[in-house]
Specification:
Length: 556
């Protein structure tokens, strides 16, 4: 038998330690950590632009967090204007809330947070939990949280005792918020990965955006008013007095209490956070155990047949009614379509709520509802995805093309008109400007009709591909950013330009103290006329551009 070097295998990797078909615990932990590192590396290797954006974003995030931490550490010590430690407690509470909310609307975009991807592997819950904990601590998120919580602890620290308590409390708080996020993700994994979970993610994202705006208004009242003696932090005291008793915020506040000589209270805050960490780990392990051994109930249910369309008797007959029914089902069942609809509604409501809070509410804000809801006509065929092949096969005559576009436009109008009619009186009641209600409603309908016209034309002239993964957080396939901007900005500015005659008359009437009530009559009529012309123009080009639309909208 030859012993030449050619017969010796080179660099053969050692086989993982396996007992009874189950990998060794250390192997599982090491594999999960390396898997997280490989996911990060492979994500950056997709394109240089994405890698550069990730690196720049991570660096800027760390620098921004470091700046905030330094600012909190340099805040004045307790004065009559309030305590710097209160600001640190509020920061820690906001960070903990953010970590808890992340899985509710970003779950589908983070593959490493989905434990259902590992359900077919022979893994025990204990090593899976340890490996998941270590893997979840990898990335810019935990690093940014560590920096911010360090600054929050320093804002109330004083002396060596505070340093010791902070050295224990800050890492404990970081570990707790990360485990909190993963526990929420694991406990709701099957819900969040389902269609209803994606719907919940849409509502969660809108609610989160509203809370961010409310927090922004509150921060302006605190940090936007600096007096001779520094910032007035007194409005934060009532909130901080509650949050400092809630773990893991208490672990950060332990540095302040230790600096004040209340060592027993400091130990109690650290112990409460440690107790919460133990409970979260038990919940996380229980969720992993259930996911590994329990069948998904959705795979055991009998698929119910689709019943006759409820409310179909209220729709027009023929192709227009069928297209309306299909489009409305997309808007209710398809996550991306639902996200687009509720994002438009949510943006309008956020602006209206902010106007009320800040004292500049006006009934004319209802015009934004008409503009944003008109955006639902954008990229009509890209939303269909590969199903557009079946639709395209039925577009044989100009009448078919016109009815297809009319049905989609009527579907948008079926929810845009009621929303506008409800929002307009609500704004009038809040602002007290009942006299401006007719004109504001007329302008809103003029903008809505203009948006439908522009959207139909752009859907034919500038379609783009949408990803086929039904992720509501992704509205376009890679490389389509330019077309998305053309559609979005083209619709906003185009609808504003088309509706300028109605808006121009209203501006003249308000400036010259003329009658504004004619806008209520002219606005809807003008919007209907512009929408009809836009649909006719788009239908005339749809058949000749059908091959190009198919090539651009169907992801291959």
């Amino acid at each position: 038998m030859s012993s030449s070097p050619a017969a010796v295998p080179a660099a053969v990797p050692a086989a993982p330690s396996v007992r009874g078909g189950v990998p060794d615990d250390r192997t599982v932990v090491r594999t999960l950590v390396s898997l997280k590192l490989r996911l990060l590396r492979n994500g950056l290797r997709r394109s240089r632009g994405r890698a550069a954006l990730y690196v720049v974003g991570a660096v800027l995030g760390v620098l921004f967090a470091a700046g905030i931490a330094v600012a909190f550490a340099l805040l004045d010590r307790p004065t009559e204007a309030g305590s710097a430690g209160d600001a640190g407690v509020v920061l820690a509470g906001a960070l903990a809330l953010g970590w808890a909310a992340i899985p509710l609307f970003l779950f589908s975009s983070d593959e490493s947070a989905d434990p259902t991807r590992l359900t077919m592997l022979p893994l025990r819950p204990a090593p899976l939990l340890r490996g998941s904990v270590l893997a979840s601590l990898i990335g810019p998120g935990p690093l940014v949280s560590l920096i911010l919580l360090t600054g929050a602890a320093l804002s109330g620290a004083d002396g060596m005792a505070s340093a010791v308590a902070g050295a224990v409390g800050v890492p404990l708080a970081v570990l707790t918020v990360v485990v909190l996020s993963r526990s929420v993700a694991a406990g709701n994994a099957r819900l969040l990965s389902s269609r209803r979970g994606k719907d919940f993610a849409i509502f969660g994202g809108l609610l989160f955006a509203l809370l961010v705006q409310i927090a922004n208004v509150g921060s302006q009242s605190v940090f936007g008013k600096a007096g001779e003696h520094g910032l007035d932090l007194s409005p934060l005291a009532p909130v901080a007095s509650v949050l400092r008793w809630v773990p893991p915020v208490g672990a950060v506040d332990a540095a302040r209490t230790a600096g004040e000589g209340r060592y027993g209270l400091s130990l109690l805050q650290l112990a409460a956070t440690a107790g919460l960490l133990v409970l979260l780990l038990r919940w996380w392990r229980s969720s992993l155990q259930q996911l590994m051994v329990t069948a998904d109930a959705s795979t055991l249910e009998v698929v119910r047949g689709v019943q006759g369309a409820r409310g179909a008797r209220f729709l027009p007959g023929g192709r227009v009614g069928a297209v309306m029914q299909r489009h409305l089902r997309y808007a209710w069942r398809e996550p991306r379509a639902k996200a687009a609809v509720f994002t438009s509604i949510g943006m309008t409501l956020v602006i209206c709520v902010l106007s009320v809070v800040q004292g500049w509410a006006t009934v004319y804000l209802v015009a934004m509802a008409g503009m944003f809801l008109g955006l639902q006509m954008l990229n009509l065929f890209g939303m269909d995805g590969s199903a557009f092949w079946m639709v395209a096969a039925t577009l044989l005559t100009p009448d078919d093309a016109r009815d297809e576009l009319r049905g989609r436009a009527f579907a948008v109008l079926s929810y845009a008109v009621p929303i506008t009619l409800v929002l307009a009186p609500a704004l009038a009641a809040v602002s007290g400007d009942w006299a401006g209600l007719p004109a504001a409603t007329g302008v809103a309908f003029a903008l809505l009709g203009s948006g439908i016209a522009i959207g139909a034309v752009l859907s034919v002239l500038a379609p783009y591909t949408m990803p086929a993964d039904n992720n509501p957080m992704r509205n376009a396939a890679p490389g389509q950013g330019g077309l998305v901007m053309v559609n979005s900005f083209g619709s906003i500015f185009g609808s504003a330009l088309l509706a300028s005659p109605v808006a121009g008359y209203l501006g003249w009437a308000l400036a010259a103290d003329g009658p504004t009530w004619p806008v209520l009559l002219v606005g809807p009529a003008y919007g209907a006329l512009v929408a009809a012309l836009g649909l006719r123009l788009a239908a005339g080009r749809l058949l000749e551009r059908l091959p190009e639309i198919l090539a651009k909208t169907v992801e291959r």
